[in-house]
Amino acid sequence: MQQINKARMNEFAIAALVFGIISFIQLAGIEKAIAAVVFGILSLKRIAAPDSNCRGEGLAAAGIVLGIIYAIIAGVMLFTIVKNPALLEQMLKRPLPN
Questions:
Q1: What is the pTM assigned to this prediction?
Q2: Which whole number is the average pLDDT over 16-31?
Q3: Cα separations in angstroms, 48 against 21, 44, 52, 57, 85
Q4: pLDDT tier at 29 (50, 70, 90 boundaries)?
Q5: What's the rounded Cα separation, in Å, for the pair 31 and 45?
């Protein structure tokens, strides 16, 4: 009888994708972006292990990419605010919408 090999989805790959998406939804999500990259790398290592029957390389890669993109955007924003403090002052003085 043929044995069916069901590969399960790696939990770290799912976590990487979720953290990558959430980092864009919430403000100041740099810690979530870092978590997405870390979970993605750990997931790829676990999936590549010789005795592993897990899948989820695409989810892990997507989480890593989203985390890196958000980290770059946050870095550019931080650099812009540090180089131009008047911009931050202008943003803080703007009235909030009703």
A1: 0.79
A2: 85
A3: 24, 6, 7, 9, 46
A4: confident
A5: 21
From the list 6, 19, 17, the residue with the least C-alpha distance to 55 is 6
Q: Which residue reads 């890593």 in tokens? A: 64
The contacts of residue 40 (CB under 8 Å, 6+ apart) are 12, 13, 16, 20, 60, 61, 63, 64, 67
Task: List the structure tokens of 60.
Answer: 């892990």
Distance CA 71, CA 76 (A): 9
User: Whose structure tokens read 């998406």?
Assistant: 21
Give backbone dihedrals phi and psi of 47, rounded to 5 degrees, phi first: -70, -35
CB-count exposure of residue 67 (10 Å: 0-12, 13-18, 19+): buried
